[in-house]
Amino acid sequence: MSKQGLPVVDVSETVCCAPLASEPLNAGEADELAPLFKAIGDPVRLRLLSLIACHEGGEACVCDLTGAFELTAPTISHHLKVLKQAGLIGSERRGTWVYYWINPRALERLSAILAPRQALFPA
Amino acid sequence: MSKQGLPVVDVSETVCCAPLASEPLNAGEADELAPLFKAIGDPVRLRLLSLIACHEGGEACVCDLTGAFELTAPTISHHLKVLKQAGLIGSERRGTWVYYWINPRALERLSAILAPRQALFPA
């Protein structure tokens, strides 16, 4: 069977309702989820994620974010890049600035994985 | 007002119901939470946490955990130590073996922080 012939499975749906405490995570799931947790395992990135999520209109320009930190713009950009590569935020350039928004499905999925035994986001 | 006179606030309670998307995390909260996410930002530790959480009776001996991995016992012990230092699991030696259990409050707190805007664990 060719790789092209494999059905596309939206893992975000299947993992969503199978919290960590219901059945053991398999190696594939763990390999997929660990980088997302690692991406938020940094205080600056955690705050950036929160600032973006809370920003008016649900999106923030990098110019809205730098003021909260005593860090250079390139350092902030590096952390935003890590969050984007993990799929936790999206971005788009509009004119001079790049705008960022969170990916709520990704956060919801991580939240559900850590949730108590009962499914928090039933299908 | 003396420092001694300040009321004691249980941060685990206040953070529980203030998800990341409701109001920006402050630096102190982020510094406190990031190491917990970092601890589970590793596929082996994520699977260990899940194996312990799912184990019969809610606790597992290191002898119950090593079989799931192609890793040496010292490596597994190292990962368990990281999880314990982060406060995600507890442990106790009984005779020959050390037994581990998860700290459900810690997982609940991380889950709540990442949850959608509405509080998932109301007081």
From TrEMBL, chains A, B:
Pfam families reported in the protein's UniProt record:
HTH_5
Checking SUPFAM superfamilies in the record gives: Winged helix' DNA-binding domain (SSF46785)
Which domain of life does this protein belong to? Bacteria
InterPro entries per the UniProt record, alphabetical: ArsR-like_HTH, ArsR_HTH, HTH_ArsR_DNA-bd_dom, HTH_MetalResp_TranReg, WH-like_DNA-bd_sf, WH_DNA-bd_sf
- SMART domains, alphabetically? HTH_ARSR
Q: Which controlled-vocabulary keywords does the entry list?
A: DNA-binding, Transcription, Transcription regulation
What sequence ranges are listed for the domain HTH arsR-type? 25-122
Q: Name the CDD domains on file.
A: HTH_ARSR
Record protein name field: ArsR/SmtB family transcription factor
